[in-house]
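Why predict the complex rather than its parts? Because the way molecules touch one another can change local conformation, and only a joint prediction can capture that. The input here totals 637 residues.
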Amino acid sequence: MISNFIPGLIMIITSFLLPTIPQYFRHPAMLLSVGLSALSLFNGYGTFLEWDILGLNLILYQSDSLTLPFAIIFHIAAILVIIFSWHSKNLMEHMATLAYAGSAIGALHAGDFFSLFIWWEATALTSVFIVFAGNTNAAKDAAMRYLIIQVSSGVLLLIGACLMLYQTGNHNLAVLDLKTNFGIFIFIAFGIKAAFPLLNGWLQDSYPESSVTGTVALSAFTTKLAIYALARTFPGTDSLIWIGAIMTAFPVFFAVIENDLRRVLSFSLNNQLGFMVVGIGIGTELSLNGTVAHAFVHIIYKALLFMSMGAVLYRAGTTKASELGGLYKYMPFTTIFCIIGAMSISAFPLFSGFVAKSLIMSSLGGMGMVLIYFILFFASAGVLEHSGIKIPYFAFFAHERKNKVKEAPINMLIAMGIAAFLCIAIGVFPKYLYQILPYAVEYQPYTLDHVISQLQLLVFAIIAFLFLVKIKLYPSEIRSTVLNSDWFYRKMLPGIGKPLFKKIGLLTDSLYKYLGLSFKQVLSKSYKFSNLSYIKVTTPSFAGTILISILFIMLVIVLV
Amino acid sequence: MKKNDLKSMGKSFTKYILLIGALLILLDFTFHRHEYFSFAEIYGFPAFFGFVSFVFIVMLGKWLRKFLMRKEDYYDQ
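Output of the joint prediction:
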């Protein structure tokens, strides 16, 4: 029986039951539901649940070698988030988080575009409450914008699915291309959630506005679900290579000048997605393995970095670089965990980022794509800049701090500790990660060439940083807003639309005024007319008579 | 002593990083580093590439501030 239960569904049901559970048992109950859902990981591959409805065959639960690694890491991420938020009493956020993680896991197991659409929208509708739970005016506004963008993605997916069903009679998840119109719709739907260049504004807009714990949950699921969907439907699509390459390089410059460290991490998240998208675009077994491996390790170290910044926000009250610094003395464990996350994302040998990124770089090198290879190599120096150096440096070092703060609560330290342990364990023993990848590929990341090459890049980038700080060319942090692609709908469109509608409003206003005046005149005339002694009827019945006669005349005309 | 904690940490960190950097360059001379592209096999190429990329990213980012940076309450106005 349990083997037919859609993975993740039990988490959604538990999330609805949470209000009835006493406060102290809520987190254990959440963990238990994730554990029960994780039993599905042992089911093996195959199709387990189908549903015939409205003449459609929906595949609600299927699993294969691409689903499994994502399902494993989504469950791990859910557990990390629950432990990290153990101290919190925000019921709405807990419910939203659990249902969100459940929906994302459910989406992985959908076998057709319509079931995928349902889960796609479910992740949007549940996660918007996490943004909302940031509980500031800025968070509420960001949540509304987030919802509009996410639902639009879902609508595009639905249009694509309907067109596909209409044109081909098939709606199962399959490899598509961009030569069909439904392929384009679905591609853009996935592209919005994967934060393609210029479609990425929602990510940096909403994630940093969420609560201490909310951002950690958000960082794990939505974008990686999109990566999974792209890997399933568009492997080997050439344009993805360029889209991905731009994604790796483009956010790097924004991250340099952004002041809010959680927004810096959101730009960094965008850059990491670029590596995965390139892997999908290449479409070989090695590169797809690279994408999956990268998504797997990325979820852990990105959650770790967001957790460390969450802990800083929780204790110091801000994540603005211009206001932080010197926290290493007061939050030593958080500092160490953050540095482990930073070294993992920067792909230092023996850390998880290295063993995953190598797969993508090797497949690029093997194909002889020299330009893309060096864009990604360049972007690796960028990753080191914003995630490897900027985050730990400005939060924990930079300058001495005057006010004392406490170390992060124990539950946060445990969650960060588990994530940090996984980062190192995967880096040291990559074969366990490689075993669960979709394709069986023999690969050895630790060759002398590769380790030396990567270390040279990283160490000399650090030397460049020290050099720039020494000669005082490294930009100091300034309290500011950095424009991003959300500017188009937050500033430009309202900038055009507001005056335009104002003018149209004035025009219609004067039109109504004029109409009103003439109406008054007609009314007063008819009033005089009705008061004439030879019309012995009251106005309503007089009007009624006229109306009926007009209708009668029309009827006669129509009949004749 | 307390005031100089960060400074002394920075100094020793710089020292060790420079040492590791020098070692990595020396190592490059001891064996032939195989790369996918032959021009990347030049001695110290990744080191040079990393240094230059980093400076380029920071400098271009700094320059982009002219176009992209607004006041903190920009969207609230």
